Amino acid sequence: MTRILVSDPLDKEGLDILKGSGFPVDEKADLTEDQLCQIIGGYDCLIIRSGTKVTKKVIDAGKKLRVIGRAGVGVDNVDIPYATEKGILIMNTPAANILSAAEHSCAMLLALARNIPFAHESMHKGEWKRSKYTGVELNGKILGIVGVGRVGGEVAKRMKAFNMTMIGYDPYLPKEVADEIGVRLTTFEEVIQTADFMTIHTPLLPETKNMISLPQFKMMKPNARIANVARGGIVNEDDLYTALKEKIIAGAAFDVWCNEPLEENEKKLLTLDNLVTTPHLGASTVEAQFRVAVEVAEAAVRYLKNGEITNAINAPRGKLDPETEVFVPLAERMGVFAHQMSGTNPIDGLEITYCGELAAKPTKMLTVSFVIGLLQKIIGRENANIINALPIAKQKGISIKESTTERSADYANMIEVKISSKGKTTSIRGTVFGNLPRLVGFNEFTFDAPMSGDMILVAYKDSPGIIGAVGTVCGNNNINIAQMSVGRSNDDALMVMTVDQHVPAEVLKKIGKVAGTTDVKFADLVDN
After folding, report:
1. Contact assessment for residue 486 and residue 461, using Cβ atoms and an 8 Å cutoff
2. Three-state secondary-structure class, residue 436
3. Domains of the chain with CATH codes
4. 332 is catalytic
5. Mean of all residue pLDDT scores within the chain
6. Is 150 a catalytic site residue?
7. Which residue of the set 201, 280, 339, 429 is catalytic?
8. Among the options 66, 104, 201, 231, which is catalytic?
9. The ACT domain covers which part of the protein (predicted)?
């Protein structure tokens, strides 16, 4: 008998859907890890919010567990790699709280501009200090939006009504899309330097962690005000305290924090009289809670009854089309690779061709998997799934064309993708040997490199001694080369190395120096 456990509070409408499925449903909130481990073995489905931590220990105890449904977006409370390894499907509700988060961002900006929380507190003390809480208008001010995606775009639509001039930084959004919502795309530095108000809407990634720290605060206007309803950690909290305490900027409004609830050393922020705070309420509306509960319940029931996968963070390989499942890891890693090879330039289009025997097989999941990989470092891994990947790509102005051909030079099966970006086209080719994804072509070069680790690509003029020199640089900097392959075209060569460690930028520069080139690229594939 299939059984469902709901271990965090869930809106009644979602519970009704689960209970109406015919499966037994138990509600047991506020469980410790040990308590959850004691009972999880009897359940096929676990429905959670942010309170339950699904650790490796919990997953090991869940012998029958097939699906974990997260009523919300963030899944940092779930050990995703281990759940995937165990064949457990993880679902979330990536679009359910977009409007609520956008409206909360607008509310925070307004509260900050008019000192509403501080004036409210003063009134409740019996005071009447009108001059102390004089605010500023939004009218005519510059609003800087860092991350002009779904939430940032909705904020822009709403703040238009306040007659604000809107500028934005989003390296992955085409200009045409930004123009439609009235946002002028520019550099991160210009947003920092010129915005009167700034709002953040990026995922927390290695490259966005602490992206706003003391150097950025010192570049801002003294009257600048910043709001963050995205993720804690994008703004350095110690530097935020300094910037507010020393009046480097005028104010801040924060809904998200590095630690939730705040730890003792962070509570110094709450002593500031120019910081508006809320306890992660971006999605805390009646409507959003209704939507997340209903969406996760419907998705879980569809999967348990029909095996239909929707809103998936991961896609257990055994649940996919058996004719194409071996190519899914290849397609996803090619997507991650393609994004990193494009740099900061927005991708305009993809032309994906399935060659050889693949031409006669269902390939839609492979296309989706490629796009999921492509989007992972743009919107965050937890936000890209088999349901939303193609719509988000379309929203970002990426056209996708699929084709097939029975011809496949040198390989029984091959995936070729041509990526267009600002008029430039890059071609990558991949295949699978012995269930292992391999990169076998990049532009005019042909080679064979396993996509089992991080990769370094060095384009150089072919001459003796280059391979040895590059190997020496890697060895001297403790970079272990797992495999090396070289492709040649006339006098040009491309060295492709699979390595066991992340390669710092300074090491890449050293490699370029000994190879006599500046065309050295690094692809971080280790987590994919």
Report:
1. no
2. strand
3. 4-95+288-319 (3.40.50.720), 98-277 (3.40.50.720), 321-443 (3.30.1330.90), 452-528 (3.30.70.260)
4. no
5. 92
6. no
7. 280
8. 231
9. 455-528
